[in-house]
Write a structure and sequence with these properties.
9 helices, mainly alpha, globular
Length: about 210
């Protein structure tokens, strides 16, 4: 809701609603992050932090302590290989077992929003993971959520300070070229699996627009 309302740029009309939603999100932080309830996961934290980032742009206060706790949780979840998975071992999910691209990009985006600079060791290790496993034709290390990965990558590397390269790869130009080669006759992008066409199409459009709050 915060992302949608701030995207209208109608601060006069929606500031009260965005402020209310921001306070609700902050009240739901558990174990330093956000999740289904008991424990945080990277996917929920992705959208919460992006929403808090948008709220800050409208001048709404987000306590530094909340962001610090989130940065600490993200850093603690980094795997030995430098990447990230969906969550810690307390979350019983096959998505929590190995590093993969969408969650590694999500973690880097989250670190930036929380004030961790790209020069920090944990950020650099994550960027090195993305370089080692670089691809724009799939979600590296996973078997689904390809378009979500591309959008997470775009957000992580476009939020200031921006990074136009992963190693020697111009990730945006390569990703955009790939997406423009993929649309179906009905105008949608289809990834399959859990990532239904309405999701993958929105993810693709947001990537192409370099859309960030």
């Amino acid at each position: 809701a915060i992302l949608a309302l701030t995207a209208t740029r109608n601060k006069e009309k929606y500031l009260t609603r965005v402020s209310f939603a921001t306070k609700r999100l902050l009240s739901m932080q558990r174990h330093r992050g956000w999740g289904y309830g008991g424990y945080p996961d990277m996917a929920h934290t992705h959208y919460v932090l992006l929403a808090l980032y948008a709220a800050q742009k409208w001048g709404i206060d987000v306590p530094e302590e909340s962001l610090k706790q989130s940065a600490d949780w993200i850093s603690a979840m980094q795997r030995k290989d430098g990447g990230w998975s969906y969550a810690g071992i307390e979350v019983t999910s096959p998505w929590a077992e190995t590093s993969y691209g969408s969650m590694t990009a999500t973690a880097l985006m989250g670190l930036k929003i929380c004030g961790i600079p790209p020069t920090a060791p944990q950020f650099q290790k994550g960027l090195e993971w993305l370089e080692r496993h670089y691809t724009i034709t799939s979600n590296p290390g996973a078997y689904e959520w390809h378009y979500y990965y591309l959008l997470a990558l775009q957000r992580a590397l476009t939020i200031p300070p921006s990074q136009p390269l992963i190693g020697e790869h111009k990730w945006y130009e390569e990703g955009a070229a790939y997406l423009l080669s993929q649309p179906q006759l009905d105008g949608s992008w289809k990834a399959g699996g859990q990532e239904e066409a309405i999701m993958s199409t929105c993810f693709a459009i947001l990537f192409l627009k370099k859309a960030i709050p």
